[in-house]
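Minutes, methods subgroup
Present: GH (chair), OT, SY

1. OT presented the first of two proteins processed in the latest run. Sequence and structure tokens recorded below as shown on screen.
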Amino acid sequence: MKMGKFITLEGGEGAGKTTNLEFVVEYLNSKGKRVMVSREPGGTPIGEDIRSLLLKKSKQPISKDTELLLIFAARAQHIMEKILPGLEAGQWVVCDRYIDASYAYQGGGRNINLNKIKLLVNNFTNKLEPDLTLLLDVPVDIGMSRVRERSVPDRFESEKMSFFHSVRNSYLSQAATFPNRIKKIDGSQSLALIQSEITQYLDILLVS
């Protein structure tokens, strides 16, 4: 039986997930929770190998279906090896991206039929859903300007702007569909305002 809580952070490129994930972990620690931090794709040795393959620019293109299957292969390993054991041990698992990212990036961005993604979700995730998803939303032009300032773009970050608009629209659609779980936060606000909102959602989860 799941004992810990599962929190995911989602958002497009340059949304501020990394900074705010660190805040979430520090806040939960201050409340006496044991926290495990992870990410997708990745989180396990096998998952990290798959992540490297997915992010690396190459002359050999990866088909959209191959991309989808690789992500779910990494996810299946991640759930079995790390997320479920952590939750069953009473830890709070905080993860950078999860299933919502597949609907946004492969469904919205790659235009893969959502039923195809749902089939993989139903068969390879142990029906594990987050208790809370924090969706950091920023306009695409703001997010991509942040990306260009921080590092050399990876394979995903090198996509056309239309790709990222589709990703964002998919995320917003998911937030509208699952408002009890997905909490949309304006990532273009000041960091203080963003983290004030995050604190409110975490406090609700802490007493649930």
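2. SY then presented the second protein from the same run.
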Amino acid sequence: MTKARDATYQVIGLMSGTSMDGLDLALCRFWKKRKWEFKIQSAVTMKYSRAWRGRLAAAQHLSMEQLLELDSLYGKLIGSCCADFIRARKIRHLDLIASHGHTIFHQPERGFTFQLGSGNAIHAITGVPVIYDFRSLDILLGGQGAPLVPVGDRHLFGSYDLCLNLGGIANLSMERNDQRVAFDICFANMGLNFLARNKGKEFDRDGKMASRGISNKRLLSDLAAAYAGMRKNRPALARESFETLIQPLLESESILLEDRMMTFCQSIADEINLSIPTKRNKQSLLATGGGALNPFLVKLLQNKLEGKATVMIPSRQIIEFKEAMVFAFLGLLRVRGEINVLKSVTRATRDSCSGVVAALSPMQ
């Protein structure tokens, strides 16, 4: 299918984050005049069953054969979710599906990353062209393979000085000397959800448990020390470093659970504050991701950033589905043959047009 360069595109973006709450699907429309514009036409989170959450959580321990089998099974699950989504919304035309997959391994220092979810399986079920595996090429070019969302921040949210994602991991994106720079800051919902599961809950709704806690100075100091070595080089954060550096600190049963949650929220606000440069004028900060729906965390953050930046909360749809929408955009850039990964962000040797293609007709 050939399209003019100024055409309108319909794309489904898919995202499964470290919080493992479900698969985000966003049907997006993109068009370009002087700059790129977008509209999220429909979006939903398809919750994982308890069995699937268990499979994803244990995937890093599987044998190679078992992991390949799960990659196919999870791809079929994604494909079925997409097919149901397309059918329910009576979508008549779709240019492509862009799937992030679910990260199982991310070790750029060893030259690999792996996002579960076969793109070929998604295509086989939906019949729609699929773009997937957005991170591997950048890692092979010497980059961190992350973060990737800043390309979307530049093209779609350029009116904000700063773009903050409060997902499982908190990361920041901004322009500096006419280059987009971005980096992971600290663990956010990954740690809060880990603590909430001690109470049999998936997450701390509205930060209510954390709000009942008292900050623990020793734990706060230990968390700061764990991040201290990362503040200069800003490596990509992943499950492996959470389990090694942060989880043992949060498991201290000598500290009340509510106090650990309060302290971890305070740590998130502290680390974000340290990551934002002070400028003469107050900056606008767009906050998205699940943490932006936590009023207690947002209040802590705004208090910490007083005089430096104003935290701006967009619509709930943007908060919840920005990442899925941006991956739809990255897929679109891929089929247009345009740069969708920036070396200024990932520290690779060059920019790249990244993503593996499953059954795509030419669109140039």
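Chair's summary of item 2: The mean pLDDT is 93.
Next meeting: continue with the remaining queue.
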